[in-house]
Amino acid sequence: MHRKTLKKKQNHYFLYALLAPALILTIVFKYIPMYGAIIAFKDFSPLKGILRSDWVGLKYFEKFLHSPNFTDIFTNTISLSLLGLICSFPIPIVLALMLNQVRQAKIKKNVQLVLYAPNFISVVVIVGMLFIFLSPVGPINQLVSAIFGQPLMFMSEPEYFRWIYILSGIWQGAGWSSIIYVAALAGVDPELHHAASLDGANLLQRILHIDLPTIRPIMAIVFILAAGGIMSIGFEKAYLMQTSMNLPSSEIIATYVYKVGLQAGDYSYSAAVGLFNSVINVFLLVAVNFVVKKLNEGEGLY
């Protein structure tokens, strides 16, 4: 058995060579940095270093859980993530199903180009556009003022922050996220649709019974991964969109870690908060995968 395994590896050495750079990068940039996570359990001092700093156990985890900001920060992170997942997950699927119905290749390519283009715009540029368009004298508020008589403070009021964040994220990433579904639908045999049409099935019935079953395994995997990263909201966009006025709804764990870690220099505390966030992510990944496997005939991430 050992000889067979060794021979199989020798026959596929080229594939293992292609895999090697990705494995090395993952080990160097993902696993080795995990060593630094132990400062969450120490009273870290740059002068003493990681190994010689004093152990404090769960002191900083308890500090975060009992801090007056914990409830607001945790609630903001969860609500922003859940709303983002609920609102953004179906959009790429709908776009892919619509694109799959476009038969003229030239029109389809042009539509795809328009949908994919926002993904290549920098987050900094996106936020700059939001501040320009949603400013009190911006084009959107000019229309609002013409209708209601006064502008709305979109970037200052906390209640607007979540929806601006989510909707701008959908605009930026939905088209790009639909690529995987478009690719899967390209493998559907056109004869299935033709046969279903001859049997009297309308467009909706063909989508429900042919297209959706084809992409269902991919939908399950994408949903599991998205739910597993539900606490990992993009730091850059949230931080750039923050103002002193919308802070009650825009302060999330990622921005809090940046402020207490890099700005305030409390490295152990920020490491503890970040590790807490990662543990919640892992728990959600396992839990969602278990639920999806039960609902999806045993098909899940693992």
TrEMBL record:
Its membrane topology: Multi-pass membrane protein
Record-annotated membrane-spanning stretches: 12-32, 78-99, 111-134, 163-188, 215-235, 267-292
A Pfam family it matches: BPD_transp_1
ABC transmembrane type-1 domain location: 74-288
Location(s), subcellular: Cell membrane
Keywords of this entry: Cell membrane, Membrane, Transmembrane, Transmembrane helix, Transport
Cellular-component GO terms for this entry: plasma membrane
Keyword Glycoprotein in record: no
An annotated GO BP: transmembrane transport
UniProt cross-references to InterPro entries, sorted A to Z: MetI-like (IPR000515), MetI-like_sf (IPR035906), UgpAE/MalFG_permease (IPR050809)
Gene3D superfamilies tied to this protein: MetI-like
PANTHER family in alphabetical order: BLL4140 PROTEIN
Family in the record: Belongs to the binding-protein-dependent transport system permease family.
Name of the featured protein: ABC transporter permease subunit
Species of origin: Paenibacillus kyungheensis
